[in-house]
Write a structure and sequence with these properties.
Layout (H helix, E strand, L loop, with lengths): L12 H41 L3 H12 L5 H8 L3 H13 L3 E4 L9 E4 L1 H9 L7 H7 L3 H18 L14
Antiparallel strand pairs: 1-2
Length: 176
């Protein structure tokens, strides 16, 4: 006795298109939720920092960079934080006003400055929860190169669709 096999007819193109669109909708919703989780983790960390020590996450990060590299200049601080030089200047200006950083001008070029953490800034660093650079940069550092490259390529596609300004890339997350 021959066994009969049940053959299924291929789905019509319209049904395939609907199924594909539904999968795309579900996938985009899942990705959106993951972005929300990332943003909430970042926001929550910076809120904890500010609640615990009274200053923002970018200021803590700047303090920690200067603490680790006493005498660092403004341009090197901006490079270390991957922010625009004017953003670094604004952070430093605020920290100087709060008497947490000292700015010295030594050498022949009086425009160049050297930065040092004052005792009140050191006290803040001791109280501040880490990581000082924020949870997202630290998490990204833990990913393997292939994942980072894939993320970079995929994020590039998303950024093109969003038509974001390039300068937005140099604004610390804690200031968004």
């Amino acid at each position: 006795m021959a066994q009969s096999r049940k053959l299924t007819a291929p789905l019509p193109k319209v049904e395939l298109l609907r199924a594909s669109e539904e999968r795309k909708k579900v996938a985009s919703t899942q990705v959106l939720r993951k972005f929300r989780q990332v943003f909430n983790a970042v926001k929550s960390h910076f809120q904890q920092v500010e609640k615990k020590v009274g200053i923002g996450g970018a200021q803590i990060w700047a303090l920690s960079v200067v603490h680790n590299k006493p005498g660092i200049g403004m341009n090197d601080l901006a490079l270390a934080m991957d922010i625009h030089q004017t953003t670094a200047s604004n952070l430093v200006r605020s920290l100087v006003k709060q008497e947490m950083l000292l700015v010295e001008r030594k050498g022949p070029d009086k425009r160049s400055v050297q930065l040092y953490v004052l005792p009140s800034g050191q006290k803040i660093l001791l109280k501040a929860p880490g990581p000082f650079s924020g949870v997202l940069p630290e998490a990204l550092k833990q990913l393997d190169l292939a994942t980072l490259e894939r993320l970079d390529n995929d994020m590039e596609k998303l950024l093109k669709l969003l038509a974001v300004e390039e300068k937005a890339a140099q604004i610390p997350l804690s200031q968004l």
